[in-house]
Specification:
It is a single chain. This protein is 31% helix and 22% strand. By secondary structure, it is α+β, with helices and mostly antiparallel strands. The chain has an eight-stranded mixed β-sheet with strand order 6-10-11-16-15-14-13-12, sandwiched between helices. Strands 1-2-3-5-4 form a five-stranded mixed barrel. Strands 7-9-8 form a three-stranded antiparallel β-sheet, with no helix packed on it. It is globular. It starts with 7 loop residues before the first helix and ends in a 20-residue tail after the last helix. It binds 4-amino-1,4-dioxobutan-2-aminium adenosine-5'-monophosphate and magnesium ion (MG). 4-amino-1,4-dioxobutan-2-aminium adenosine-5'-monophosphate is lined by residues 165-166, 206, 208, 229, 231, 238-239, 242, 244, 246, 402-407, 446-448, 450, 452-453.
Length: 479
């Protein structure tokens, strides 16, 4: 058994001197053939280890290079150096894994995020990515904690499906058919009856439709899993593989849905602020430094910390789609023709430049836009009495734009069928979804939170590729 170490986080927080401990980790720097700074991923703060001159073989010290894995036994002593209360006076040093200095791409200096993306297998070992992924973990944990405390049941929805939940058609096909000679049917079309599942299948774009089934038994459920979209959008907000949290609740209308989403987002951000304060402080500092490069008008008005505090302490603004269009029509950028997509009027889909104007310039806080035109929203959303809008809601946050999309669902069978037919949604394939409207149908609602967009918002990272360990984007599936 080798695991008799103390984690550096625990050691630093205990600050107890005069005892012997063993630590293990990776060398960040080795100065003056004497001072090792060691990190084991438990915290952003490195442990200073002192290897007193003359105590250790030169041949051993030569192997202590940046990136090398070390096991150190030593005595915890008060530190005279600044920046730390304690340090470890080494009595035994063992190099567990060498790291050739001339080949190791991570040097103790500032690397660009773009470069680090190319060495994503090593970027976990940097301060920035250490902090980002500890915060990501805290948020994931808080999500389960929030729902568990409320009595929601966690449902695992399928990854491979035969339906297109969003009706968006941007899906990755799953097949075992031989691409070189595809089987054809009588009409010359690809014969999916010969495929693995006996039908055409794809990776899921959302677990919502299945979550709705579970919600009509458990009343409150949620999913938290990977979802896939073959959208060819190379932006800082889109991934081809991303994680989504989708709560689905029976006996909730749109108003209840909005309230839950707001409470949920505030809860998980507050949790991260309480449990990863050190990492968030580091990320706030990183962002402030990055923004110093920008012209004054492009910098954020609030620091990351202030922004998060603001979000957990203030109600989100609520505005109807109709009112949002009026605000945009009258806005300065629209009048000065500064928008790439001019605001043509009621019925248009909001582009991200419009959403960002609303949250960043007009309201300056998170905004919930609701009651969208039915024509631009998915088939399952509940039709409002005005005959034009559906009970949909999107939550937008500063710097990111849309973070949540949700709605009250159409629970009335005739209304749902009518809308499915008008939108060419294959009712035969969704027989089970329609069954739920025949057997004990109830008003119900739900939403989807894009996990990486949330992590971006909380960590202040500008590019979504930097908040998921191994991003999947068009043209990129390395690692
Ligand atoms: O708005 P969307 O498409 O909604 C749904 O999928 C619904 N079924 C949710 C529901 O009601 N249960 O996606 C929800 C959220 C978006 O607001 C966004 O945060 C995120 O998922 N998202 C993406 N995140 C990263 N990359 C992409 N390509 C994303 N597409 C959507
Ligand atoms: Mg959406």
């Amino acid at each position: 058994m080798i695991n008799q170490r103390i984690k550096i986080k625990a050691l630093l927080s205990e600050e107890a001197t005069g005892r012997e401990v063993t630590v293990m980790g990776w060398v960040r720097t080795f100065r003056n053939n004497q001072f090792i700074s060691l990190n084991d991923g438990s915290t952003n703060t490195n442990l200073q280890i002192v290897a007193e001159l003359g105590q250790f073989d030169e041949s051993l010290l030569k192997k202590i290079t940046t990136g090398a894995a070390l096991k150190v036994k030593g005595m915890v002593v008060p530190s005279i150096g600044k920046g730390q209360k304690i340090e470890l006076k080494a009595t035994e040093l063992e190099v567990l894994g060498e790291c050739p200095a001339d080949e190791y791409p991570l040097q103790p200096k500032k690397h660009s995020l773009e470069f680090l993306r190319e060495i994503a297998h090593l970027r976990f070992r940097t301060n920035t990515f250490g902090a980002v992924f500890r915060v990501r973990h805290a948020l994931a944990y808080a999500i389960h904690k929030f729902f568990h405390e409320k009595g929601f049941i966690y449902i695992h929805t399928p990854i491979i499906t035969a339906s297109d939940a969003e009706g968006a058609g941007e899906m990755f096909r799953v097949t075992t058919l031989p691409l070189e000679h595809l089987p054809r049917d009588e009409n010359g079309n690809i014969d999916y009856r010969q495929d693995f599942f006996g039908r055409s299948t794809n990776l899921t774009v959302s677990g919502q439709l299945e979550a709705e089934l579970a919600a009509t038994a458990f009343s409150e459920v949620y999913t938290f899993g990977p979802t896939f979209r073959a959208e060819n959008s190379n932006t800082t907000r889109h991934l081809a593989e991303f994680w989504m949290i989708e709560p689905e609740m029976a006996f909730y209308d749109l108003e209840d849905n909005m309230l839950l989403a707001e409470e949920f987002i505030q809860y998980i951000i507050r949790f991260a602020m309480e449990h990863t304060a050190e990492d968030l402080a580091f990320l706030a500092q990183r962002l402030a430094e990055e923004e110093k490069q920008l012209p004054q008008d492009k910098r954020s008005e609030m620091s990351l910390t202030e922004k998060l505090e603001f979000v957990v302490n203030n109600r989100f603004e609520r505005v109807t789609y109709t009112d949002a269009i009026e605000i945009l029509k009258e806005s300065a950028p629209n009048k000065k023709k500064k928008f790439q997509f001019p605001v043509t009027g009621w019925g248009m889909d909001l582009q991200s430049e419009h959403e960002r104007y609303l949250v960043e310039k007009h309201f300056r806080k998170p905004v919930i836009i609701y009651n969208y035109p039915g024509a631009i929203k998915a088939f399952y959303m509940r039709q409002n009495d005005d005959g034009k809008t559906v009970a949909a809601m999107d939550i937008l946050v500063p710097g990111i734009g849309e973070i949540v999309g949700g709605s009250q669902r159409e629970e009335r069978p005739e209304k749902l069928l009518e809308r499915m037919r008008s939108m060419n949604i294959p009712e035969k394939e969704l027989w089970w979804y329609l069954d739920i409207r025949r057997f004990g149908s109830v008003p119900h609602s739900g939403f989807g939170l894009g996990f990486e967009r949330l992590v971006q918002f909380v960590t202040g990272m500008n590019n979504i590729r930097d908040v998921i360990p191994f991003p999947r984007t068009p043209g990129n599936a390395e690692f």
